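Internal tracking record. Fields below are filled automatically when a chain is submitted to the structure queue. Please do not edit lines marked as system-generated. If the sequence contains nonstandard residues, flag them in the REMARKS field before resubmitting.
Queue: standard
Priority: normal
Entity type: single polypeptide chain
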Amino acid sequence: MIEELKDEELVRKVGGRFKLSALIQKRLVALNKGSRSPVSNERNIAASKEKLNIVIQEILKDKIYLDSAGRLQNRLDNVDEVLDTEFAGM
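SYSTEM-GENERATED OUTPUT FOLLOWS
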């Protein structure tokens, strides 16, 4: 078992076990569909255990969260990245 999942800090950080479970599940789905990870240099991550470790690191580093409607959201450290993402289709 992954040690970070035993730590109550992770549960408190997300807001409860149910929200943690939902966040992990939604992020794993996104990674399986090809989403990039801000904490991993590799786009295609083969093993599911590696993907779970990546999701946990993203949570611990405040890179992902569930919004008030339960949707998966990312936090970008750089405002320019947000602008590039928003205006990429224009």
